[in-house]
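User: Is it possible to get a 3D structure for a protein together with its bound compound? The compound here is flavin-adenine dinucleotide. I've pasted both below.
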Amino acid sequence: MSFLDKLTEFLSPDQISTHPDQLRVASIDESTLPPVTPVAVVWALSTDDISKVVKLCIEHKVPITSRGGGSALEGSTIPTEQSIVLDLSRMTKILNYWPEDLQVCIQPGLIYDDLNKKLKSDGLFFPPSPGGSGNLASIGGMVSTNASGIFSVKYGGTKDYVLELEVVTGTGEILKLGSRAIKRSSGYNLVDLIAGSEGTLGIISAITLKLAGLPEHKLQAAFKFTDEISAAKAVSEMCRYGVDLAAVEFLDSKVMAALNQLKNYGLEEVPSLFLEFHGTQSSNQSNFETAEAICQEQKGVKLELPSSQSPWEVRHFVTEAIKHLKPGFTIIRNDVAFPISCLPEMVQFCHSQADKIGILMHTFGHVGMGLLHALMLVDKTNQSQWHKARELNDLIIKKAVELGGSISGEHGIGLAHKHLFTLEHGGSVDLMRKIKKQFDPHNILNPGKIFDL
Ligand SMILES: Cc1cc2nc3c(=O)[nH]c(=O)nc-3n(C[C@H](O)[C@H](O)[C@H](O)COP(=O)(O)OP(=O)(O)OC[C@H]3O[C@@H](n4cnc5c(N)ncnc54)[C@H](O)[C@@H]3O)c2cc1C
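Assistant: Yes, that's possible. Here is the predicted structure of the complex:
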């Protein structure tokens, strides 16, 4: 009996597909890496399904790439040719809800925006919004990449909200990790180990999240600057002075221009900061006034967004706007993270290096946490330009690591940044290999991602 026939013994026909259209969807994520067609797509509906699929895959030596919303940006969701894609997007149930404890237990396929819509009527939310992909990203995918976003400067990233996980390991064993206690001093923190492991250690089948209360009052503001460095300095000063920022997004002048081209917003094409404060009306006003004074020291002045626009509506279209500038060109991106005081240096480095080699560079990001995206638009058919842009991308990542930072503050390593992994982690990669072996002795869980065995 073939592997696919054996799957039909415990899954219904609509849970398995080898249709070329379905295989095509499962062959890519949102990165610009080439597609790889898997053997089949399998939809799990329960923890039991996942465990049985893993056990069968061990028997037949078939690797598994888990897939939530497929919005990953570094190729972590791209399977190998021998793999099945285990799609968790039909596992969207809320399994338990304790509003009085600010906690919820969900299946991994639930989409970020859908969860927050459900929580809103109780005055609660799950804060680490992954920005432009909130309507795509599943919570399982967010845990697996330790996603973060606009509001993480105040509230933290995904892993800061994960209390308990149910995980199916590479042997098919079902483990419960963590507990519903908010604070634990009880043994190794295996929950944090799974967060950010990109589907290489286990398949997450249930997640208990801590939630936050929706703020009583919100205040949004935007400031414009004469140059990128002044905007970056203002951010690092705001952090130094302890301004209580719920969000601070940096957009350079080229990003503002791209937004105008796509959406006709009529924005001033200058480096800008979009801010949001959460608290009471008076605390927000006082934080805003301190932020304004700091911006003024850097010659920053208030930027009026055209009336009906919220900063986040505008921010949402950044990547699309950059792509729209040069149809047919490919985006090379990074998501470096570094100590906040290095932000001006990093911004300057990206722009000066890009100018040197004539590459179109855009910088933006959740800068309050020292996260920056440098996006390059490159004609892939121009081999010399492509090669230079790839080298520059590596140079930017190396610079972040040199400054005491990280290759990835958000999107993970996947396939795209694997070649630089040792640069950041040195000898500890060997320890990671040993850990991987404990969770996945047959190396069937998303093989080839993050590092090679
Ligand atoms: C326009 C746009 C904007 C974005 N903005 C942000 C941002 O601001 N911040 C940010 O952090 N990211 C951002 N991203 C990246 C992406 O949305 C996040 O990485 C997100 O967390 C991925 O979730 P997903 O459900 O789509 O995961 P997928 O792409 O399906 O999977 C991602 C990884 O997790 C693994 N995985 C998925 N589900 C499971 C599971 N149940 N168990 C084990 N492993 C699993 C996969 O194997 C893969 O390695 C953006 C992406 C786009 C396209």
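The chain has a mean pLDDT of 95. The two ends are 31 Å apart (CA to CA).
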